[in-house]
């Protein structure tokens, strides 16, 4: 199989297949009104070569039939459903699942992210091969086979955000001081590589890393909680590994298409929180305030544009700060109304 960037996948070898004695993996899925996709995703977990010890589904007060459909289609005692009375958001939902998990590894998985072949086994192997690794993520593809933005990236700094927000990056897009922190445009590596950040749509974390780094920061309702965790992991001495031979397909945009303005508001609020939480001590306060103002101005401009022209189908520039490059949000990244308990990250 060839991806859109021209790289040919290497065939799976037998030594990557894992037996039933594999290290125990707990899968945590935060669900919010994802319909039939949730049951399809869970079913693929138990059809893989490395089957998880358990699958914990945190349902954030869904009002559709996604949970009922899951109960009907996947009759497996390893599936545990925890129904939340209100929508906790993605980070808090993941933390609920982690607190109930018992595996040596915890796979954070979006309810619209389908794993191919032996992804779990490959991610476990990558972590076992690197004693300093705390988390590993696969190559995540869009439905058209292109690489999805965010599955391998650098940590965005206030300076990079400033350059993107003001359009400065267009002057020298390949210069190290101006180029994008997303690595989507570069060739895929042949082997596993250490990166600064991976996507929370599919992220395998070791139990020891959770104990050392902590869980997700629940102040993030949607977006940037994964990068925040990756940054804290790096500061603690844990490495983040990107595994190009492990492939997942992320549908995206399942549960929040009807709430575009609120989605954008939460995204931008999380970006500002990320900057202030992780960089305020390294950058002048005036510059951090300037970056925050730019983020708010871009949000206002984006909402006005959406009101007049509708939501753009192809996003570039500013939208590269966020995960997907297909014009949609991930299912677990999409909030509803914070006042009616229908939110989800």
How does this model look, in words?
With 345 residues, the chain is an alpha/beta fold. It has a domain of 205 residues: Spore Coat Polysaccharide Biosynthesis Protein SpsA, Chain A, CATH 3.90.550. It has nine helices and nine strands. Strands 1, 2, 3, 4, 5, 6, 7, 8 and 9 form a nine-stranded mixed sheet that branches. α1 packs parallel to α2 and α8 runs antiparallel to α9. The longest helix has 25 residues. It starts with 24 loop residues before the first strand and ends in a 36-residue tail after the last helix.
Number of helices: 9
Task: Classify the oligomer.
Answer: single chain
Structural class: alpha/beta
Describe the largest sheet. 9 strands, mixed
Top CATH class of the domain at 15-151 and 183-250:
Alpha Beta
CATH topology of the domain at 15-151 and 183-250: Spore Coat Polysaccharide Biosynthesis Protein SpsA, Chain A
Order of helices and strands: EHEHEHEEHEHEEHHEHH
User: What percent strand?
Assistant: 15-25%
User: Please, what is the CATH homologous superfamily of the domain at 15-151 and 183-250?
Assistant: Spore Coat Polysaccharide Biosynthesis Protein SpsA, Chain A
Mean pLDDT: 81
The value of Rg in angstroms is 19 Å
Please give the CATH architecture of the domain at 15-151 and 183-250.
Alpha-Beta Complex
Alpha carbon gap, first and last residue: 32 Å
- The count of DSSP E runs of length 2 or more, i.e. the number of strands, is 9
Task: State the shape.
Answer: globular
The parts where pLDDT drops under 50 for at least 5 residues are: 4-21, 324-345
Helix content: 25-40%
């Amino acid at each position: 199989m060839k991806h859109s960037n021209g790289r040919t996948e290497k065939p799976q070898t037998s030594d990557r297949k894992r037996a039933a004695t594999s290290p125990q993996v707990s899968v945590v899925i935060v669900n919010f009104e994802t319909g039939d996709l949730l049951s399809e995703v869970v079913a693929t977990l138990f059809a893989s070569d490395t089957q998880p010890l358990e699958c914990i589904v945190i349902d954030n007060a869904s009002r559709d039939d996604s949970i009922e459909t899951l109960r009907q289609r996947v009759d497996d005692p390893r599936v545990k459903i925890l129904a939340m009375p209100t929508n906790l958001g993605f980070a808090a939902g993941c933390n609920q699942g982690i607190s109930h998990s018992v595996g040596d590894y915890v796979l954070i998985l979006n309810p619209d992210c389908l794993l191919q072949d032996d992804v779990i086994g490959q991610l476990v192997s990558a972590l076992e091969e690197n004693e300093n690794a705390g988390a590993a993520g696969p190559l995540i593809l869009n439905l058209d086979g292109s690489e999805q933005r965010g599955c391998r990236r650098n940590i965005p700094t206030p300076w990079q955000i400033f350059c993107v927000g003001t359009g400065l990056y267009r002057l020298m897009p390949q210069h190290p001081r101006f180029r994008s922190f997303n690595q989507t445009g570069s060739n895929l590596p042949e082997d596993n590589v250490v990166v600064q950040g991976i996507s929370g749509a599919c992220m395998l974390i070791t139990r020891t890393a959770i104990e050392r780094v902590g869980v997700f920061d629940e102040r993030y309702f949607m977006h940037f909680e994964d990068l925040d965790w990756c940054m804290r992991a790096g500061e603690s001495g844990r490495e983040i590994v990107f595994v190009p031979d492990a492939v997942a397909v992320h549908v995206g945009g399942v549960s929040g298409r009807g709430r575009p303005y609120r989605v954008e508001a939460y995204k931008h609020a999380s970006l500002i929180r990320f900057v202030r939480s992780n960089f305020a001590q390294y950058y002048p306060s005036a510059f951090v305030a300037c970056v925050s103002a730019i983020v708010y101005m871009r949000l206002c401009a984006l909402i006005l544009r959406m009101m007049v022209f509708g939501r753009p189908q192809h996003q570039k520039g500013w939208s590269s700060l966020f995960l997907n490059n297909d014009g949609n949000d991930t299912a677990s990244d999409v909030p509803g109304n914070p006042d009616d308990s229908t939110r989800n990250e």
